[in-house]
Structure formats: C-alpha cells, structure tokens
Specification:
mainly alpha, Arp2/3 complex 21 kDa subunit ARPC3, 2 domains, 65% helix
Length: 444
C-alpha cells in the first residue's frame, strides 16, 4: 500500500481530537468505574472472541456482541464513561489491511465519538431514568434515538474517510451507508437495551450477560452460512476459469450470460433466491465444454457434421459434471436444456415450448444475446438494437417471447455494459471471415 493521502491523515487527526474531547470530562465523581471496567473488559473480550472464527477465514468479522455491549454502556453510563468502553475493544480490532496502526486508531476514534453522541442523546431524552425504572415502552424511544445518533455519526465518518482516502465523489460517498447500517444497529440496540434493563434489575450484571448468548449463536449461524456461500462461489469460479482457459475465444462470456439472466429474472418478477440460482445457471451454462476436445473448440476452420455433433454433447457433459452439486438446484436443468428451441428443433432432446424448463428459456435468450453482442475472431459484435431485433425475429420459434420481451425492457431501463471481450483480451488474433467460422455460440 502506498503512502496515506494527507487529507486522510487530517481526517484521522480530526477524529482523534474529537475523541479526546469526548473523553475530557471522564475523571469526575459521577463515573461508575466498576461498571465501566466490566463493560470495557466485556467489549474487549468480545473483540478477542471474534478473532477466533470457527467458520474459517471467510467468516464475517465481528461477532455481533460488540455493538450491544457498546450500546448497553451508552444506556447505563454518562457520555464520557460510555465512550471509554469502546476504546480497548477498538484498539484490539482485527485489521487485515495496512497500515494497521492508523486503521485501529481511526476505528477507536470513530467509535468513541459515536458512542459518546449516542449516550448524550439517550441521557437528554431521559433514557437512563426509564432504564432504572424498567419502563420498557418508554425506554424504547430514547434508545431508538440513541441508535439513530450512533448510526448517523458512523455514517458521517465512514463517508468522510471515503472522500479523503479513496477520493470517492462526495455526492456518492454517503449514498446508502445509513440505510445499510440502520437495520443491524437497530437489532443490536434492542439487545443493548435488554442488557441495560437486566443490569439495573435485581438480578444484576450476571443476568445481562445472558443476552450475549443468542447474539453469539446468531453470529455463528451466519458465519456458517457465509462460509458455505464462499465455498459455492469458489466452486463456480474454478469451473468458469477452467472453461475460459480451454475456450479462450469466449472468455468473459459466462459472466455476461449470468448478468443478462439476472436482468431477465428481475424483469419477470422472479424472487431473489431463485434469481441467484439462475445467475449460477447463466455462469455455468457452458461448463460441459470441459468435456469437448480442445482441438474442436479452437478449430479455426468450419466444423464437420461429426465435429458439430461432438460439440453439441456439451450440455449433457455439463449436466453430468454438476449433477452432484446440490446448491445449484434448478440451474442443472438450464445447463442441460439451454440449447433447446421452442419449436422443438433444439438439442439435446428436442423439447417443445413449456416442456423446456423456465431457467433454460431464460439462459437461452441471455446466451444468444451476449454471443451476438460480443466480438469474435470471425466477426464483429452486433449493436444491441440489432441483437434485440434478431431475438424478436426468432421469438416463438427459437426463443420464449416472454423472455425476449423481458430482456428488451431491462436493457431499455439499464442499458448493457459488457466486460472485456475475448478478442480485446487476446490482442493480435487475426480476424477470420464468416466462412471460416468456428461458430459454437447460440446466436440465431
């Protein structure tokens, strides 16, 4: 990593000065040192526990118990004392990127300012009295305001460091930050409020610690899900890279088919879970090419009928390869049937109309669209409008008209911004005439 921009250093310095100002009134007679020490130790312990990631290195950092403890401190302690609770844990934060020391200092200053503000807002609204009296309905309003204040300060500082360190435009630096942070912080706020109420109850701090148990369990479950998802992505990435290496002429094609398939899925109202599986189908639709001899995939001249029949086996090869990968679900049928045609003239089984699975009908349109709009060694890419016109001409015979219409609507709204094409990635490849085509894509 290169030197830190001066603007970023100024941002860190200002945050540190703000944190010091928040801690300035700490040594006074109202500071409950025992509660402060216990909460600070608990916060640091949660941070240390989060370093032990049972789900592996891909597990999300932070166990979800860090913010509930911070917010419990904001609900229980005066502002300066609550701010100090954040300091030990923040300085122990796991940092992957360099410079680690400056990043830890930034995180500590950010949390100190945010927790001090939350505690200040909570106290101004009479929140500490409602916690002592355990008046739950009345305690929710000041606690909610404190969470909003915490989220606002974290968002403000996160956006500021993006502008200063990453040179993100100011008009986009804060876009969506607050909304993405609010929901998880609201859950943490409820857990923190429960901790504070139990802390002040006759059962004492020991009962408050029980709130952290379900938070840890939820983190562990989420970490397991995260690990499984990372494994899925790694499996797909390895398969796609293998296909791209073997058939370099269509490098990037799989990712673009996945993207176009997602555009169609959103347009026809497919739910998010199925749409994600459909994206896998688009990305892996040509994985069966791994079973086709490389000399056929890279042949510069026209294919003989026998060679074309061998290439047309790739959907069955692909289906056989992924048959045991459970998380692909419906994607397996798309891999097998994406070369079927509505009129029954496709392969491998000549299915007709609705006999073709929905995923396969989507991928067929996405596959043909990207094949036509990508540059190949034997022809230039067609304009998007010309490709859509060709799809519409073949709708009802080769393609499902509903999927063609959905793609056209999605492109009209969002446009098409493909990645680098195969020829651009392989400079110096001589262009061939259409008569010498090694045409294996799905263009009509």
């Amino acid at each position: 990593m290169g030197p830190i921009p001066p603007r970023a250093l100024c941002c860190v310095a200002l945050a540190v000065l703000g944190a010091l100002a928040c801690l300035a009134r700490l040594p006074d007679g109202r500071t409950p040192w025992a509660a402060l020490a216990l909460l600070a130790a608990l916060c640091a312990g949660c941070e240390q526990l989060s370093r032990w990631r049972p789900a592996g290195r891909h597990a999300p950092q932070g166990m979800g118990a860090f913010f509930p403890v911070l917010l419990a401190g904001a609900f229980l302690l005066p502002p300066s004392a609550a701010a100090l609770v954040a300091l030990p844990g923040a300085l122990l934060t796991r940092v992957e990127q360099r410079p680690r020391r400056i990043r830890r200092v930034w995180r500590a200053a950010q949390l100190v300012v945010a927790v001090w503000t939350a505690s200040r807002v909570h106290g101004a609204l009479g929140g500490r009295e409602s916690v002592v009296r355990a008046e739950s309905p009345y305690a929710l309003v000041p606690a909610g305001a404190a969470v909003l204040a915490l989220c606002a300060v974290l968002t403000l500082l996160d956006g500021a460091v993006l502008v200063a360190a990453e040179r993100v435009p100011a008009r986009t630096a804060w876009r969506g930050l607050f909304a993405r942070s609010l929901a998880p912080l609201a859950v943490h706020g409820l857990a923190g409020l429960m901790m504070a109420v139990l802390w002040r109850s006759p059962y004492g701090p020991a009962a408050a610690l029980l709130v952290l148990l379900p938070m840890y369990v939820s983190w562990w479950v989420f970490a397991q899900y995260h690990r499984e998802r990372a494994a899925h992505q790694a499996t797909i990435r390895a398969l796609v890279q293998a296909v791209d290496i073997k058939d370099g002429y269509t490098r990037g094609h799989s990712e673009r088919v996945g993207r176009a398939s997602m555009m169609i899925a959103r347009e026809i109202g497919m739910d998010d879970e199925r749409a994600e599986v459909l994206r896998f189908a688009g990305i892996l639709h040509d994985v069966g090419k791994l079973g086709v001899p490389t000399r056929l995939l890279r042949k510069d001249g026209p294919l003989t009928p026998e060679e074309r029949r061998v290439i047309e086996l790739h959907p069955e090869y692909g289906h056989e390869m992924v048959r045991g990968i459970g998380f692909l679900g419906e994607a397996r049928s798309a891999i097998l049937h994406h070369h079927e045609r509505i009129d029954g003239s496709g392969y491998p089984y000549g299915l007709v109309g609705r006999q073709i699975p929905e995923f396969a009908r989507v991928v067929a349109v996405a596959d043909a669209f990207d094949a036509m709009t990508s540059t190949r060694s034997y022809r230039r890419a067609r304009p998007v409008a010309a490709a859509l016109a060709e799809l519409e001409r073949c709708a009802g015979r080769q393609f499902d008209p509903r999927m063609v219409t959905a793609l056209a609507r999605a492109l009209g709204r969002h446009g098409w911004h493909p990645a680098v094409t195969a020829d651009e990635a392989r400079p110096g490849v001589p262009a061939q005439t259409p008569g010498g085509s090694r045409r294996t894509e799905s263009a009509p």
